Amino acid sequence: MPREHVHIPSTGNIVLEAEIGVLNPNSDKTKFALVCTHPYSMMGGHMSNNVPSALFKHFYGNNSDLPQQLRDSISVVVKFNFRGVGESTGSSTVTAWDEREDGKAVCKYIVEKYKVDKIIILGYSCGSAIMSGIADEIEQVDSFAAISYPKGWWASWIFGGHYSHIGKKPKFFILGTQDQFASVSSFTKWYDTLAEPKELQIIQDADHFWFGTEDVIIKHIQPWLLKRIQ
User: Is 221 helix (H, G, I), strand (E, B) or coil?
Assistant: First the structure.
């Protein structure tokens, strides 16, 4: 299974570092791509963070636990660095607003190069805020999962501009009861205002960072993905 280290053009001469795992490039079924995104760049977020790395490894690696239906449907798994991180050029922005263009550029690249039919976003923390806000703008995006979405008092000062851009595409949120950036009570009130279809999974005792408990995320993401590819 080829694994490619590539550089993807974004806006303003910015180039993005990405790793792409190619699984079924010649599949005659509907081709799905999974795009995994990292947390806040200004706090050291990068594509090698534990959450996007665990997702990438599980769905791209030689994993005997992966259901055959997913093996047959997932053609490409992607993780990448937003601008200003790793080998990605340019500068990170405080509100992560310009990074929206990076998300669009990565989706455009994989659609054109790998001829995928649908994209499912697996966003984490700030990466989930960025990508969920552009999902409705990208035709091929089928749905998104948002892990530890940063919707809280402190986070709203930085990421508040992204909140109102969540649209009507299917969405799945995973939130820990001990999340440092979002309380369950305030999050659920906001969640209730979002358009259907939507799902919310609250994980007892989990915090924002998931160190050592990445398998819990996968436990809930995998059955949701199975529903999305049917």
Answer: helix
pLDDT digits (tens, 9 = 90+) for 3-55: 999 999 999 999 999 999 998 766 677 899 999 999 999 999 999 999 999 99
Looking at the whole model, is its pTM more than 0.70?
A: yes
Query: How many domains, in total, are found in the chain?
Result: 1
For residue 40, which of 94, 88, 98 has the smallest C-alpha distance?
Answer: 94
Which helix H or strand E contains 186, and what residues bound it?
helix 184-191
Q: And the tokens for 39?
A: 């947390």
Q: What is the mean pLDDT of residues 179-202?
A: 96
Tokens representing residue 12 in the block: 């303003």
CB 132 within 8 A of CB 144: yes
CATH no. for residue 40? Answer: 3.40.50.1820
Cβ contact 150:159 at 8 Å: yes
Q: Residue 174, class by beta-carbon neighbours within 10 Å (0-12 exposed, 13-18 middle, 19+ buried)?
A: buried
Q: At what angle do helices 50-60 and 214-229 cross, to 10 degrees?
A: 50
Amino acid occupying residue 131? M
Distance CA(21)–CA(69), nearest Å, equals 18
pLDDT at 179 over 70: yes
17 lies in which domain range?
A: 3-229
Residue 200: how many CB atoms within 10 A of its CB?
17
| Rounded Cα gap, residues 136 and 18, in angstroms | 23
What is the identity of the amino acid at 44? G
